[in-house]
Specification:
Distance between the termini: 32 Å
Helix content: over 70%
Shape: globular
Strand content: under 5%
Radius of gyration: 20 Å
C-alpha cells in the first residue's frame, strides 16, 4: 500500500513523540529515582511521587480534553493548538533536563507531560484528515509500529552515551541529561513534516465566540454519546482496559527498580519491547481483518491480565525480560486498534471533539492506575499489590467490550 505525503507526515510524528514516550517509560523514572534517593527520599516514596506526578498531569488534561478537542474542530485551530502544545512540552522538557532539585524536576515533568498529552489529542484527531475509513486501521498501526522502532534510534544513542560517556570524560549525570536533549531535538525536528504537510480537511466554520461555542458543543456531544450505546460502552471499556495498559507502560521501570532489577537490565529489556512491538503492531491489522477488531482487542486484554498477575510475582531479572516481550506483543496492537476503531465510528467533522472525550477517559484512566500504584506503595510499603489490582480493571474493560461486540452484532443483523 503506497502512502500519501499526508499519511507519511502523520506517521512520522509518531516516530517523533514516541521517543519521548520511551524516556518517560525507561530513563526518566530511573533518573528521578537516583535524584530523589540522593536527597534522602525512601524508595517506596519515590514510586509514590512518580505515580502521583503522572496522575496530576493526566487529571488536569483529562478535564481540559473535551474543550480543547471542541476548539480544535473549528477551521484552522487544530494545527495551531497542536503547535502550542508542542512548544509547551519541548520547552518544559529542556528545563527539567537541567533541573538540580527533585521537586523542580517533578514539577517541570508535569508541565512537559501536559503539553505532550495535549498534542496527542490533536494528533489523533488528524487521523480522519489524512486517510479514509478503509485505510485507517493500517495507517494507525503503522504510526505505532514505526513509532516503536524509530524511537529506538535516539534512545540507543542516548544509552550509548550513558554507558560509555565516562570513557570520553563525560559524567553519568551529564550523559543522561544529553540523552534527554537528543530525544527532545529529535521530537521537535520530526514534527516539522506534520506541521508543514497535514491540513485540516474536516472542520466546522469559525464561530464568533469559540470558547462559549465549544463549551456548548461539548454538552451536546455528551448527550449524543449517551444516546449512542455502542460509542458509550466502548469509551467506558476503553477507560478501564487502557488504564491498565498505560499504568504498566508508565510505571514499569519505577516498579522494576523497587523490586531490585538493575537499571541497565531494565533499559535493555524495554528497548527489546520496542523491537517486539514493531511487527506485532502491523500484524494486528491482519488479525483484525480475520477475527474483527473487538475480538483482537479482547485477546490483548487477556494477555495484559496475565502480565499483571505475573508482575505481582516479579522477583528475578529474567522475569522482567519475559514481561517486556509480552508487553511488546500486546502494546502496539491494542493501542492502534483502539484508536482506529473509535475513529471509524465517529462523525468526521467533529473528530477532535469526540477524540477529546476519548482522551478524557484515557487520561482519567491513566490517572487512576498510577494513583493505585502510589497508594499501594504508601499503604503496603510496596507497589506490588497495586500491580495485582490492575487485573480488576482489565476484567471490567473486557466485560464492557463484550457488550460493545453484542451491540455491533445486533446492528449488523
Amino acid at each position: 500500500m503506497k502512502l500519501t505525503k499526508q499519511e507519511r507526515s502523520w506517521i512520522l510524528y509518531d516516530v517523533a513523540n514516541s521517543a519521548f514516550t520511551l524516556i518517560i517509560t525507561a530513563t526518566l523514572p530511573i533518573y528521578f529515582r537516583a535524584m530523589a534517593e540522593s536527597a534522602g527520599v525512601a524508595d517506596n516514596i519515590v514510586s509514590a511521587w512518580w505515580g502521583t506526578a503522572t496522575s496530576i498531569s493526566l487529571l488536569v488534561l483529562a478535564c481540559l480534553s473535551p474543550f480543547l478537542g471542541a476548539m480544535a474542530d473549528y477551521k484552522g485551530y487544530k494545527k495551531r493548538l497542536f503547535v502550542i502544545g508542542l512548544l509547551i512540552s519541548v520547552v518544559s522538557a529542556f528545563a527539567f533536563t537541567f533541573a538540580t532539585d527533585w521537586q523542580v524536576f517533578i514539577a517541570l515533568y508535569i508541565v512537559a507531560r501536559l503539553g505532550y498529552s495535549a498534542c496527542n489529542i490533536f494528533y489523533d484527531g488528524m487521523l480522519v484528515d489524512i486517510t479514509t475509513d478503509e485505510r485507517m486501521d493500517h495507517i494507525s498501526s503503522l504510526g505505532y509500529a514505526y513509532g516503536y522502532i524509530g524511537s529506538t534510534i535516539p534512545f540507543i544513542a542516548g544509552i550509548l552515551l550513558i554507558f560509555f560517556g565516562e570513557k570520553i570524560g563525560i559524567s553519568t549525570q551529564l550523559a543522561t541529561q544529553l540523552s534527554f536533549v537528543i530525544i527532545i531535538v529529535w521530537w521537535l525536528v520530526l514534527s516539522i513534516p506534520l506541521i508543514k504537510n497535514v491540513e485540516q480537511i474536516h472542520y466546522l466554520e469559525k464561530h464568533d465566540n469559540i470558547v462559549t461555542s465549544s463549551v456548548s458543543r461539548v454538552r451536546k456531544t455528551l448527550v449524543d454519546i449517551k444516546q449512542s450505546p455502542r460509542i458509550l460502552f466502548y469509551i467506558l471499556a476503553y477507560f478501564f482496559y487502557i488504564d491498565g495498559v498505560y499504568t504498566i507502560i508508565s510505571m514499569a521501570t519505577a516498579y522494576g527498580g523497587e523490586v531490585g532489577i538493575s537499571s541497565d537490565q531494565m533499559l535493555l529489556a524495554l528497548l527489546l519491547t520496542q523491537f517486539v512491538a514493531f511487527p506485532f503492531a502491523i500484524f494486528s491489522v491482519n488479525f483484525a481483518k480475520r477475527y474483527s477488531q473487538i475480538k483482537v482487542i479482547k485477546f490483548y486484554i487477556l494477555m495484559y491480565m496475565f502480565i499483571a498477575v505475573f508482575g505481582f510475582f516479579l522477583k528475578y531479572t529474567w522475569q522482567f525480560w519475559f514481561l517486556a516481550i509480552l508487553i511488546g506483543m500486546a502494546q502496539g496492537g491494542i493501542q492502534s486498534l483502539s484508536r482506529s476503531y473509535f475513529g471509524q465510528m465517529i462523525p468526521k467533522h467533529k473528530a477532535n471533539e469526540y477524540f477529546g472525550f476519548f482522551d478524557i477517559f484515557g487520561k482519567f484512566a491513566d490517572f487512576m492506575g498510577p494513583l493505585i500504584i502510589a497508594i499501594s506503595s504508601v499503604v503496603f510499603g510496596h507497589s506490588r499489590y497495586g500491580v495485582l489490582l490492575l487485573v480488576v480493571l482489565f476484567i471490567i474493560g473486557y466485560a464492557l467490550l463484550t457488550k460493545v461486540e453484542k451491540i455491533e452484532n445486533e446492528t449488523v443483523v
